[in-house]
Amino acid sequence: MAASLVFRLHDRGPDLVREVLLERGWEEYDEDKREEEDWNLYWRGSAFKNSDYLNLLPWQRLNHHPKTTGITRKDFLARNLRRMRATLGSSLYDFSPTAFILPNDYTRFLPEYNKLRLTRGASVYWICKPVDLSRGRGIFIFEDIKDLVYDSSVIVQRYISDPLLISGYKFDLRIYVCVKTFHPLTVYIHQEGLVRFATEKYNLSSLKNLYAHLTNTSINKFGPFYKTQKERVGQGCKWTMSKFRHFLHSQDINENLLWQRINNIVILTLLTIASSVPSCPNCVELFGFDILLDVNFKPWLLEVNYSPALTLDCQADITVKKRLIGDMIDLMSYTLVDSLRVKAFQREAHKKSCFHANHSPDALMPVLPKFKETKFKKERKKSQFIHTQTLPMLKMTGHIQKINQRHSVKSSFLANNQRQLPPVALNKIQEAKGRIITEPHTDKTINLTLGPHSRTNKSVVNRQTGPAPAPWTRVNGSLCQSEVTNCEEPETEAENELSAETDFSSIIHEIPKRELGFRCSAAPWKLRDVKGTNRTKGISFDGNTALNKHVPPLRVGDFIRTFPFNTATLKASQHELDIKVIKRELHKLTGQLAKSEKKRSREEEEVKKDKDGEEDFDSLLWGPKDPPLISQCLKNNL
Ligand code: ADP
């Protein structure tokens, strides 16, 4: 029997998440009716507390990884990118405009400002942004340093003054990126996204006109021309990414290369924090990457948003965001393990967190933390509700076997606790008074658990998402940072500013490392190749090799796996991140795509030979609507 999954929304929002989950048959958490820990997904716009991570139960997920402010706060991002540039070279990390964090960097900014002013013929412009605000607040553009006035910490960044324009309007791209795990780094980019336009024509002689220079919807929807027809842009200020692709097709550009360069930006940015984020396999996070294209189609990273806005302002939002959240839920790969929540709440024996590091055999049993006395619990005490509920539940479950070996009961729980799906034939899903109830594991059961609206076939999602008995591994050199970020969800901002407690370094337990990788689907997932036929050849999901066990699905809904993208990057991210290998592979792939429209040279022939010999690992080319396999794409073009 598949139980409903329960979601919990902090501050009753976002509405879109509620809508999508209710449509899929989930139930909303109600603190008057449920125990404190009785939920499968907790969604917050702001940061979670340390204790939220430490007390996570096997069936619980959070929508943020810990410590990702290293990229979502403007000053941290600038500092991290600068560090990577110094280590790995500016040719790779050349995608973010030069930035200075003021007041500290003022003495570095001044000579740079003077140098550019003296040496460059054309004017040089700068943009000043408060580090801890979002949605365009407090931003201004200046040319002359006498106009630089600030009273809080800000970043001053080179202003990209030659943006690509459509009918004279500036725009940027909102790319949705989901990090499934940081250990191993596993990244998906959603194929749909948004293009956000300014609502007045771009003009460098009016730097104060924010409707011409900023592309934030929160600003432009209040502009005088928001509802006006703006030539090719149309009404409003947003396009879907699909519409933008139509525009690109009308231009003579190498679209694949553009998407690959954006892909590189996403990966290289995540690499700046990947090794300092504690491992928390029960977390998944959605980031909003803002990318500006210049007149040469070079993509620039402007910022990374924590909790990208999920408000629905127009039709483009509805088309993109609803599907995005649905796909994200599918990416979380809810399985039967998650329905253990229901069973666990019907046992009173378990009184403490399953993540407590106690090595006695009895401690292997997953147990619940001490619950707060909720209204519900007080009521239940009165009526002794718990005992009357257990029996009907057992009867309903069907096949009941008596197994008296206590050891196997523990093993069953340990297995569940590690989020391994039970054996295909019989799922041991419940223990009660020395008995294990077994239940046939049917397709129906899994599909029910995923929900009726899941667009993801059970064989596409991972059967094992890998959460560990404990959510942390020790991290070297952890950042000590506040949680003020580029959070776009308006209602959560004040809280973000308050929850500045997240320095995990002192409280992270040393937990033995366990295998966190992906388990292959039972059946190979068929995808369409460029000719439209189903292709399975070359996709090594048969679990034959140890490495293959870790191959995450190529796509889940419209999320395309963009990292790891080949065997080398898979290997390079399994244990310690080997950034040099990743850098080399990104470089190689981008180089191949860049050259792909030119005549095949001897050098390219060599690269192709390398590739043919090495790859049994396929990746889709993120970007196109019907993404071809990268290998196919290179073969066609070389
Ligand atoms: P916020 O978090 O307040 O949205 P952003 O960094 O995203 O701050 O900047 C807001 C807008 O300003 C962007 O969407 C973009 O239109 C514009 N912008 C920001 N930085 C630059 C830049 N370096 N060059 C050109 N335009 C920029």
From TrEMBL:
Gene3D superfamilies: ATP-grasp fold, B domain. Keywords: ATP-binding, Ligase, Nucleotide-binding. GO terms for biological process: microtubule cytoskeleton organization. The keyword Endoplasmic reticulum does not apply. One of its GO terms (molecular function) is tubulin-glutamic acid ligase activity. Residues 450-473, 592-627 are annotated as: Disordered. GO terms for cellular component: ciliary basal body. InterPro entries: TTL/TTLL_fam. Residues 600-612 have a biased composition (Basic and acidic residues). The keyword Nucleotide-binding applies. This is Probable tubulin polyglutamylase TTLL2. It comes from Xyrichtys novacula (Pearly razorfish).
